Amino acid sequence: MGGCGTSSSTSEPPAPTSEAVQVSTTHNAADVMYLQMMIAHHGQGLELVQLAGTRAQQEEIKTLAAAVQATQDDEVTMMRSWLDTWSKPAAVDHDPAAHAEHGGLPATGPEQIAALRDATVTDFDRSFINLFVAHQHNAVEISQWEEERGKNPEVRDFARRVRESRADQIAQMLAYLNS
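-> C-alpha coordinates emitted (179 positions)
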Protein backbone atom coordinates (compact mmCIF):
# COMPACT_ATOMS: atom_id res chain seq x y z
CA MET A 1 0.00 0.00 0.00
CA GLY A 2 3.01 2.23 -0.15
CA GLY A 3 3.51 5.13 -2.48
CA CYS A 4 0.23 4.43 -4.21
CA GLY A 5 -1.81 7.58 -3.65
CA THR A 6 -5.24 7.29 -5.15
CA SER A 7 -4.19 5.49 -8.29
CA SER A 8 -5.34 1.98 -9.06
CA SER A 9 -1.95 0.52 -8.17
CA THR A 10 -1.79 -1.26 -4.84
CA SER A 11 1.82 -2.37 -4.62
CA GLU A 12 4.17 -0.74 -2.17
CA PRO A 13 7.76 -0.06 -3.10
CA PRO A 14 9.77 -2.81 -1.50
CA ALA A 15 11.40 -1.93 1.78
CA PRO A 16 15.06 -2.68 2.06
CA THR A 17 15.81 -5.96 3.76
CA SER A 18 18.05 -6.15 6.79
CA GLU A 19 20.86 -7.47 4.59
CA ALA A 20 20.54 -4.52 2.18
CA VAL A 21 20.59 -1.71 4.75
CA GLN A 22 23.12 -1.74 7.52
CA VAL A 23 22.68 0.73 10.31
CA SER A 24 25.42 2.91 11.76
CA THR A 25 26.17 2.63 15.44
CA THR A 26 25.25 6.27 16.09
CA HIS A 27 21.84 6.39 17.74
CA ASN A 28 19.89 7.93 20.60
CA ALA A 29 16.98 6.91 22.80
CA ALA A 30 14.46 8.25 20.26
CA ASP A 31 15.84 5.93 17.56
CA VAL A 32 15.57 2.92 19.85
CA MET A 33 12.08 3.80 21.05
CA TYR A 34 10.88 4.44 17.49
CA LEU A 35 12.06 1.04 16.28
CA GLN A 36 10.58 -0.72 19.31
CA MET A 37 7.26 1.08 18.88
CA MET A 38 7.15 0.41 15.15
CA ILE A 39 7.79 -3.31 15.70
CA ALA A 40 4.78 -3.37 18.05
CA HIS A 41 2.77 -1.23 15.63
CA HIS A 42 3.64 -3.49 12.71
CA GLY A 43 2.55 -6.51 14.77
CA GLN A 44 -0.90 -4.96 15.13
CA GLY A 45 -0.97 -4.02 11.45
CA LEU A 46 -0.02 -7.54 10.43
CA GLU A 47 -2.93 -8.91 12.46
CA LEU A 48 -5.27 -6.54 10.63
CA VAL A 49 -4.01 -7.32 7.13
CA GLN A 50 -4.05 -11.06 7.79
CA LEU A 51 -7.75 -10.72 8.61
CA ALA A 52 -8.29 -8.66 5.47
CA GLY A 53 -6.46 -11.23 3.38
CA THR A 54 -9.00 -13.89 4.32
CA ARG A 55 -12.18 -11.89 5.00
CA ALA A 56 -12.23 -8.90 2.64
CA GLN A 57 -14.74 -9.02 -0.19
CA GLN A 58 -13.05 -6.47 -2.47
CA GLU A 59 -10.02 -7.72 -4.41
CA GLU A 60 -8.36 -4.30 -4.05
CA ILE A 61 -8.37 -4.72 -0.28
CA LYS A 62 -6.95 -8.25 -0.49
CA THR A 63 -4.19 -7.00 -2.80
CA LEU A 64 -3.50 -4.10 -0.49
CA ALA A 65 -3.32 -6.44 2.51
CA ALA A 66 -0.86 -8.75 0.73
CA ALA A 67 1.40 -5.81 -0.20
CA VAL A 68 1.33 -4.46 3.35
CA GLN A 69 2.09 -7.88 4.81
CA ALA A 70 5.12 -8.43 2.56
CA THR A 71 6.49 -4.95 3.21
CA GLN A 72 5.94 -4.95 6.96
CA ASP A 73 7.40 -8.44 7.41
CA ASP A 74 10.60 -7.16 5.77
CA GLU A 75 10.53 -3.96 7.80
CA VAL A 76 10.18 -5.86 11.09
CA THR A 77 13.18 -8.03 10.16
CA MET A 78 15.21 -4.91 9.36
CA MET A 79 14.18 -3.06 12.55
CA ARG A 80 14.99 -6.08 14.72
CA SER A 81 18.42 -6.39 13.10
CA TRP A 82 19.14 -2.71 13.77
CA LEU A 83 18.20 -3.08 17.43
CA ASP A 84 20.35 -6.24 17.62
CA THR A 85 23.26 -4.24 16.19
CA TRP A 86 22.88 -1.80 19.06
CA SER A 87 22.30 -4.58 21.64
CA LYS A 88 18.84 -3.19 22.40
CA PRO A 89 15.68 -5.25 22.99
CA ALA A 90 12.96 -5.35 20.34
CA ALA A 91 10.19 -5.25 22.95
CA VAL A 92 8.67 -1.87 23.68
CA ASP A 93 8.42 -0.49 27.22
CA HIS A 94 4.70 -0.69 28.05
CA ASP A 95 4.89 1.94 30.81
CA PRO A 96 2.62 4.76 29.56
CA ALA A 97 4.89 7.36 31.19
CA ALA A 98 7.73 6.28 28.89
CA HIS A 99 5.67 7.37 25.88
CA ALA A 100 3.95 10.51 27.13
CA GLU A 101 6.20 12.85 25.13
CA HIS A 102 5.05 11.49 21.78
CA GLY A 103 1.41 10.66 22.36
CA GLY A 104 1.58 7.15 23.76
CA LEU A 105 1.93 3.63 22.46
CA PRO A 106 0.41 2.50 19.15
CA ALA A 107 -3.34 2.83 19.46
CA THR A 108 -4.83 -0.24 17.77
CA GLY A 109 -5.87 -2.37 20.71
CA PRO A 110 -6.98 -5.97 21.08
CA GLU A 111 -10.60 -4.85 21.44
CA GLN A 112 -10.52 -3.17 18.03
CA ILE A 113 -8.88 -6.18 16.41
CA ALA A 114 -11.48 -8.48 18.02
CA ALA A 115 -14.31 -6.24 16.78
CA LEU A 116 -12.89 -6.45 13.26
CA ARG A 117 -12.58 -10.22 13.59
CA ASP A 118 -16.27 -10.35 14.58
CA ALA A 119 -17.48 -7.96 11.85
CA THR A 120 -20.12 -9.34 9.53
CA VAL A 121 -19.22 -10.10 5.93
CA THR A 122 -21.13 -7.05 4.74
CA ASP A 123 -19.43 -4.75 7.27
CA PHE A 124 -15.90 -6.15 7.12
CA ASP A 125 -14.39 -4.13 4.26
CA ARG A 126 -15.59 -0.76 5.55
CA SER A 127 -14.65 -1.66 9.13
CA PHE A 128 -11.17 -2.76 8.03
CA ILE A 129 -10.55 0.41 6.02
CA ASN A 130 -11.73 2.67 8.85
CA LEU A 131 -9.57 0.89 11.41
CA PHE A 132 -6.54 0.63 9.13
CA VAL A 133 -6.69 4.33 8.20
CA ALA A 134 -6.49 5.21 11.89
CA HIS A 135 -3.76 2.61 12.43
CA GLN A 136 -1.63 3.98 9.59
CA HIS A 137 -2.22 7.55 10.75
CA ASN A 138 -0.59 6.53 14.02
CA ALA A 139 2.46 5.32 12.04
CA VAL A 140 2.65 8.72 10.32
CA GLU A 141 2.63 10.51 13.69
CA ILE A 142 5.22 8.23 15.27
CA SER A 143 7.46 8.60 12.22
CA GLN A 144 7.23 12.40 12.32
CA TRP A 145 8.33 12.25 15.93
CA GLU A 146 11.38 10.14 14.96
CA GLU A 147 12.30 12.45 12.10
CA GLU A 148 12.36 15.39 14.53
CA ARG A 149 14.18 13.68 17.42
CA GLY A 150 16.14 10.75 16.05
CA LYS A 151 19.89 10.83 15.54
CA ASN A 152 20.57 7.81 13.35
CA PRO A 153 20.48 8.72 9.63
CA GLU A 154 19.21 5.30 8.47
CA VAL A 155 16.42 5.21 11.04
CA ARG A 156 15.42 8.80 10.25
CA ASP A 157 15.34 7.96 6.54
CA PHE A 158 13.27 4.86 7.26
CA ALA A 159 10.87 7.01 9.32
CA ARG A 160 10.54 9.43 6.39
CA ARG A 161 9.73 6.56 4.02
CA VAL A 162 7.20 5.14 6.50
CA ARG A 163 5.57 8.56 6.91
CA GLU A 164 5.31 9.10 3.17
CA SER A 165 4.15 5.60 2.24
CA ARG A 166 1.57 5.39 5.03
CA ALA A 167 0.17 8.82 4.09
CA ASP A 168 -0.21 7.49 0.53
CA GLN A 169 -1.88 4.35 1.89
CA ILE A 170 -4.35 6.49 3.82
CA ALA A 171 -5.23 8.45 0.68
CA GLN A 172 -5.71 5.19 -1.23
CA MET A 173 -7.98 3.74 1.46
CA LEU A 174 -10.04 6.92 1.70
CA ALA A 175 -10.56 6.67 -2.06
CA TYR A 176 -11.86 3.11 -1.51
CA LEU A 177 -14.35 4.42 1.04
CA ASN A 178 -15.52 7.16 -1.30
CA SER A 179 -16.01 4.88 -4.30
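DSSP finds five helices and no strands in the chain.
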